Amino acid sequence: xxxxxxxxxxxxxxxxxxxxxxxxxxxxxxxxxxxxxxxxxxxxxxxxxxxxxxxxxxxxxxxxxxxxxxxxxxxxxxxxxxxxxxxxxxxxxxxxxxxxxxxxxxxxxxxxxxxxxxxxxxxxxxxxxxxxxxxxxxxxxxxxxxxxxxxxxxxxxxxxxxxxxxxxxxxxxxxxxxxxxxxxxxxxxxxxxxxxxxxxxxxxxxxxxxxxxxxxxxxxxxxxxxxxxxxxxxxxxxxxxxxxxxxxxxxxxxxxxxxxxxxxxxxxxxxxxxxxxxxxxxxxxxxxxxxxxxxxxxxxxxxxxxxxxxxxxxxxxxxxxxxxxxxxxxxxxxxxxxxxxxxxxxxxxxxxxxxxxxxxxxxxxxx
Length: 367
Ligand SMILES: [Zn+2]
Ligand SMILES: [Zn+2]
What we know:
By secondary structure, the chain is α+β, with helices and mostly antiparallel strands. The chain contains nine helices and 17 strands. It has a four-stranded mixed β-sheet with strand order 10-11-17-14. The chain has a three-stranded mixed β-sheet with strand order 1-9-8. Helix 3 packs antiparallel against helix 4. The longest helix has 23 residues, at about 1-25. About 15% of the residues are buried. Residues about 5-25 and about 100-125 have low confidence and may be disordered. It binds zinc ion (2 copies). One zinc ion binds near residues 158, 160, 161, 216 and 219.
């Protein structure tokens, strides 16, 4: 009898112990990364570790299976900006409260491949302002496509406390004054016998429901700091002046809202030779009177740096426009197709003729 009650006691103790361990486990430690680890580092760590503990590699090993599931849970929480923010601020509790549940760890592999993602739950969330930046670009770059590295200075969520402002999430406590609700009910006496209840924002926690006991040293509890981010702007072949390239959620970060977008607007610098209209290119070519009368073969330096041959075999009138098919700009989205090149000719006349030349010209045009 005594034995069995002891056993129950021990079981309860064990269970509590398990719960305690579950609540306190650190996803960063599970993945073996630093609290300031980038998304890339987290992905890399998860890939390496999950490969090691994959059940296919460890058949029948319950510990490996447990570790594998734990890795997936840690990765799921830390790979998503919103979930990571919640985890950093409130620990695993924060993830449960928000109804963001873990998926089957085996599904998580399907998340690799595309980027994007991150669209779950609430639609009408607060978004920060977008940053619009002009990006000067040459016609040559629009012709062949280019990758431009841009560094922007912006407000970032403190990489050490991940926006909680606290030393760690254990230093974030529920506000005792409002019980974590962020609001308090106050009773106001309007007149003798008439009492109205009003809801007011908690003055102790400022409506957050949480109190930071020990501030993060890196941001002095401000949650954000100035930082920069490196972006690779992919200008695709055939893009045009005024076209925008958008980086979603890359503007100033703030712990209370989703970051706005960074929008680069292309601004094409004027080109000394070519003018662009849609997918077509226009240029003017000067030829001599002799070339205008007798024809010519020439080479024009194109935007890809190659020489493009142009030729006429008959008389070319001043202002004549020659169409060269398929030598315009690549079409955006279908760069194998191209617009046309239009060459307008201007004729340069000799300023004087010698007596000899006059005689010959007179003879030439006699009939
Ligand atoms: Zn901080
Ligand atoms: Zn409060």
